[in-house]
Design brief:
mainly beta; two-stranded antiparallel sheet; elongated
Length: 114
């Protein structure tokens, strides 16, 4: 079945729900589990284009780039510490600096190398 916009299961929809992204064929696919409720633009387990819009818990590199989103209940590995970041943003197709459409302020715990 072909749809004018996207297809979510057996239904044609104007756009995929926040928890899914359209693949190249316009079929809604689930976001990575670690994207939590922030949505995504693709399947990757990070933040940015083709990945999560944000994540509740993330591993950052020394330049403050998200390298990996983690499950929200994760503990820091040895050599990492937890810090809290506040980010602000709008729009479903958000960049690393902006977050998801329904979240204005995001309280993000991060794992940063010592």
């Amino acid at each position: 079945m072909r749809c004018k916009n996207e297809r979510d299961g057996p239904y044609c929809v104007s756009e995929c729900p926040i928890s899914k992204y359209p693949d190249d064929a316009g079929i809604c696919q689930d976001c990575h589990d670690n994207c939590d409720h922030f949505g995504c633009t693709g399947p990757l387990n990070s933040v940015g284009y083709g990945a999560c819009n944000a994540c509740a818990l993330a591993v950052y590199d020394r330049s403050d780039n998200v390298t990996t989103c983690l499950p929200s209940e994760s503990e820091c590995e040895e050599g990492y510490f937890t810090r809290v970041l506040w980010r602000h943003g709008h729009g479903k197709k958000a960049s690393v600096q902006s977050i998801s459409q329904s979240i204005t302020h995001t309280h993000t715990h991060t794992h940063t190398p010592v």
